[in-house]
Specification:
- By secondary structure, the protein is an alpha+beta fold.
- 46% of the residues lie in helices and 16% in strands.
- The protein has three helices and two strands; from the N terminus they run E-H-E-H-H.
- Strands 1-2 form a two-stranded parallel sheet.
- The longest helix has 24 residues.
- It starts with a strand and ends in a 14-residue tail after the last helix.
Length: 103
């Protein structure tokens, strides 16, 4: 089995710096930036594959993150009695709890 290194980036699609671009354009921009920075070194020096995992804070995944998610779901489905479609439906947005402390 080939090793894969992941680099994860979560961005705010509603940030003013992203106002003039579609979510798809921002996802693609971040994926390409990660590939430009790391892919050559990872494949040449580390001798493994590289996947930039890019997501928005609203839960939209980039193409590569989506492919990775589907590969994981497929592998889990083959190891369990659940179907691939069942595994895909188990995708949930992570619950993020923000607590405020007043000092």
């Amino acid at each position: 089995m080939e090793r894969t290194l992941l680099d994860i980036r979560v961005f705010n699609s509603l940030a003013p710096s992203n106002a003039n671009l579609s979510v798809k354009q921002v996802l693609d921009k971040h994926q390409q930036e990660k590939k430009r920075c790391y892919e050559e070194r990872v494949t040449q020096v580390e001798k493994c594959s590289f996947t930039p995992v890019v997501m928005s804070t609203t839960g939209v995944m980039g193409d590569e993150a989506d492919r990775l998610y589907k590969q994981i779901a497929l592998r889990l489905a083959t190891r369990t009695s659940q179907s691939y479609n069942t595994r895909l439906k188990q995708k949930k947005k992570p619950e993020i709890k923000i607590s405020e402390r007043v000092v």
